[in-house]
Specification:
With about 300 residues, the protein is α+β, with helices and mostly antiparallel strands. It folds into 2 domains: about 10-155, no CATH class; about 160-295, Pleckstrin-homology domain (PH domain)/Phosphotyrosine-binding domain (PTB) (PH-domain like, Roll), CATH 2.30.29. It has 8 helices and 7 strands, in the order αααααααβββββββα. The protein has a 7-stranded antiparallel β-sheet, sandwiched between helices. A hairpin with a 3-residue loop joins β3 and β4 (about 225-230). α1 (about 10-45) runs antiparallel to α5 (about 135-155) and α3 (about 55-80) runs antiparallel to α4.
Length: about 300
Amino acid sequence: MEPTKSVSKKRVVLTWVMIVGWLVLIACICFWRFHVMSTESQADANADETEVAPIVHSIALFIIGLFFLVPAVAAYLGLIFSCFLTFNYQLPVWHSIKAKRYFFNIFVGVGLALGFGFIVAAFLWPFLSGLGLPQRQASLLPVFAVLIGFQLLRLWVLMWAPVEKLLIRRRLAAMGISAEQLKGAMLVGISNPEGGMVKRFGAIEEDMGSIWVLPDRLAYRGDVEQFDLTREQIAGIERKADNRSTTVLAGIAHVVLQVRLPDGSIRQMRLHTEGQWTLGQKRRAMDALAQAVDGWYAGQAAVADPS
């Protein structure tokens, strides 16, 4: 296994181009449709009656921005500290959190984007109007631009990273694993490389927990699964990219463990590093995890025992 293996730069660039192009195309179609509707509505009305004073219009846009932004920020902070409104960690919680994250991701993400978009529009629309755009189009163009920029930013910045850390720490604490023991662990998620798209609802990971690289075994304690793997149980280790994940955008190649089960079959476990704020940090964490696992497989690694 190559501890620092990454996806080819060509694939990374092509993936970025495809995503950016798709977002820009959608935004252009929406803006064009709005422009057509706005032009048709203004054709039946007097322009003096439909446009308002510039200062009033700017204040209105700013207030609309706060209307979206303040609840979104409050919801974001509340969801982080409550770990997506999770209050009982005595039983597995990741399955429900996956579903909640899907919907909260839309609610908070759209709220933040629209909030910032309308606030930016409050300051930029007079300039755009001076370039010849009608008031409505000049007001909405910055909103669409911020929406695109925010979506691109979210591809790199992982806004729910604190929730991943809190989930793992609180769940494992309820299982009797202390904060001191967690200092020697790496926060990871587990998924099946052969899993279909349906299983990715909300998140790719099927479980979240921590892994300890010990002299004689890999010890995993998660929300759903807990197991120890010896070298004899490992049929192979490889680095492989997930082409259906945004991790490709950072050139991340996941560690995939091929585990030999008691019946002789092979189970593939794809590992995900958790708790990082950016894809760049996630790539470096994955390389560190690969190096630790590779060293362990060669008989070199040892850290604190979770038992």
